[in-house]
Amino acid sequence: MVDGKRRKFEVSFDSPFALVYKESGPDEGVLYLRGSVVNVPDLTSIPRPPPNGLQTRCAAMIPYATIRERGFHAVGDEPIVVLQVEEESRFDLCDVLRALPSESVTLEGDAQYNFTEQEFAAVIASILKDEIHKGEGSNFVTPRRAQSTIRDFSFAKALSIYRQLLEREYGAYMVFFYFDGSQCFVGATPERQLTVTPETQEVRMNPIAGTFRKKLHSVLPAADQATDFLDFLADEKEINELFMCVDEELKMMSRICREGGEVVGPLIKEMPFVIHTEYELVGSAKGKDPIDLFRSTMFCPTVLGSPLGNAARVVSKYESGSRSYYSGAFMLWGHRNEMEWLDSCIAIRTLEISKTGLVTARVGATLVRDSKPESEVAECNAKLRGVWRTFEGPAEQPAKVVTHIAPETLHAKLQVRNQRVGSFWLKAQVVPAHQPRAALLMDNEDDFVRMLAFILEHLGYKTEVEPYSTFRSKWEAAHRNTLVVIGPGPGDPNDESHPKMRTIAGLVKDITSSGSKVLGVCLGHQFLCKHMGFEVCQQPFPTQGVQKTVDVFGAPEEVAFYNSFCPRYNAKVAMGYDGIETSLRDDDLLAVRIPRKMCSVQFHPESVLTRNNLQVVSSLILPLEIAEAGR
Fold it and tell me: Does residue 164 contact residue 395 with C-beta atoms inside 8 Å?
């Protein structure tokens, strides 16, 4: 309906257009956009005309390689494909379905893959052994690519695929079709990338991880699957996988939402063949540019890994060629009440269809410390089967499972997860007025340091985050009473051939000898302990994204670990430091402090998996607060 009058929905391929359907949201129906296309090299070059009465001013496919704008490594030279909107309408879903073609779509022969199943399993095994187990990250996502050709292709057949998605999909965040004049993008993606709402000045992200694969009702009745799903919700691997993604997106939110925010959930998202678990992150970003906010959140860790920057470098070592638009985003931007808004979804479960009918699909699985290559290959195969089902036409789908679970039972099962989550992140925060205290934090290529800064600000500190490569000049100019935080980061602290490790080691030596108050976290802890004379060893098995109850200077705390290395306690070394206090688990040196001088911990007090974030961080820095007079 437009202006109270029903218009007939018609679509043609004589000019570029996009169709966007969102199952939930303030606007009903299918959004229809038509206009002209321009290819641009970066986000800054996206045309942003002034308000003219249209709510949506552009739609854009953002390739994965755009992540280079954040300084991260990527392969590929695909442009940002921008639809400059000249016509905007909204139609009832039933009217769109009646008008869309319903042609038979078949593929020419078997799909071709960039990796065989055996090759892909070998890639996964290498990432587990050579990256996760050696401290390069807590999780990684690398895709398998499949290609085939649509027989007797026409763009009407591409629209027929979209029709099937509209008819059969539910639970997707966006179901979209984008024709740029020479190629099509057809997607039904479950995950939001970023939403910026001008009326409330809120930003939203929703990390998704954990996948329950549904079965056909003829194979296993939906009521029986409901019991299996409740068991799935208690699976430790699935729980930790989601929390790792929440942590990674909280890093982004801590950077862009300095006024505060909160974690909402856990929630579930049921789709035709799978059920996902997710959280929603809500924050305030008053007065900030939507495109700049989008840039700061490229791209979701659920399609790349964490820490994000190192994940981008690592996955490029194992992937054959460009990701193209996979794990990038589909973005809408425009004006409402003369204020800019933005909505976007990650480009997964999205087909790229060329003018010759060549179809490209990519799917990936999240690799964590206890992943099994054969299981991850099977998960990717299942996702690819779901993609190819799009071409099969009407067929039996699994029945809905969640409807067989009493709402109060489901709610109680989900809320159990929050019993282990840091309460600081589960409620809206208000940043207090700054006290006359300052903290300078060293960024060692992991934005966990941003979460640390956010918590320190809530404890009354004025914070500044500086990369390790330029940290020295900032530190030398800082007031003597400034708290220096040696932050976490990926890598092997014993690798003296690595420029980053040499730089951090030199900084730690000079900072500790200067009399500065020092707090070290994870990698920072390892370097401080190493400088003190303790040996730092690789663990037999990494503890990435794991919550443990440990003694923290006499107090039991549930805290998060993300490490592959850990210092070893040595009594002779400890005897050389007056007043030293330590916390141990067997021979692992989990925490060390010398009052009024330094404190460091192997765990992450800022993580969502640390129960008492504020209290733990406060207890670590309190003994450092008795300081000498300023310089």
Answer: no
